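Note to self: the last two entries modelled the partners one at a time, which told us nothing about the interface. This time every component goes in together.
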Amino acid sequence: MTEMIFNQPLQQLITGHLDPELNWHSRCHPIKGYLPQYDTAPLFIKREDELNANAVGTKHRKYLSLLPNLQHSGIKQVILIGSAHSNNVFGLSQMLLSLGYQVTALVKAPGNRALTGNHLLLNMLLPPSQIVYLTHQEWPKVLQMAEAMSLKLNRQGIKTTVIPEGGYSEAVLPGILTLAGDIQKNSDQLNTQFEGIWTDSGTGVSAIGLLLGMRLLGITEPTVHITQIAGTPEEFHQRYRQFEKWMEKLQRSPLPKPAPKVRLLRPATAASYGSINKTLLKESWIIARETGLLMDPVYSVKHLYTVKCEMMLAQPIGPQLVLYNGGTLGMSGFQSQLASQESIV
Ligand SMILES: *Cc1c(COP(=O)(O)O)cnc(C)c1O
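The predicted structure of the combined assembly is written out below.
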């Protein structure tokens, strides 16, 4: 399936690192309603939510190369790190269990003891002995604890590895590079050159993959606008530099210098990570009615609302592509709030 997807430089670099059985292509279509419509700026949405029914799109692209990497390394046990509602812990657990790996999750104890959303589904996937809850105070040490656990298991002869929060690791690089090539494919099919691309970021890994892939393909004209759902601009740039190094290692040559312009945006409301408020709950309803898209409030609604505010402030010029990186499953933790439209922080 990976033949003839991408043009030469990208294709050669990543073929052989990707699981050929997994889907890498998502469609792109005009977005009707919700965002301000200008004649000079046709708007499109990329349906990363449709890549995988069980794991959100940005995470799925990471798994394209992470899973073959684990397989080639002969890993038997995987230690995952994340919040109780983490899309990565929940998405990757499913993939790993179905492939026969042992999975242990080191999870930040949630404020809310009730089992809902991803946290409920994670408990369905893993027995209590394989979910280790850490307190707020213990959390800064989570990576050290995971590494110690992994060392112990490796000494016992069980080949183990740790996947850091959000999948931040070198092994995801070939997978996240597929996004730029896939956007190029959408662009060819629609016969449209995008002049702005709007995405959201947590660890920044997916957005960085997009930027690096664009550089490799020589697509440097569109500005990439990134709603920073988590983290600071400094953290983003530090990770960008780290992935540039990993990229040079992967392709064994320096990276093309010309790069798309990056704009980091603060969320237009409920800026702190994980928080939602009445505005976002209301916008979730409006987006569903006006676009037909059921979006998760923590990432995707916050992102689309921020894009709307930005586009109202400054009229975009030329075709614009908005990425829907989340998925409807992400709503499941918010059913009662969505029903009552009551704010929580
Ligand atoms: C994880 C996630 C992101 C951000 O991905 P990063 O690679 O961590 O920046 C964006 N949207 C959704 C819905 C996610 O689950």
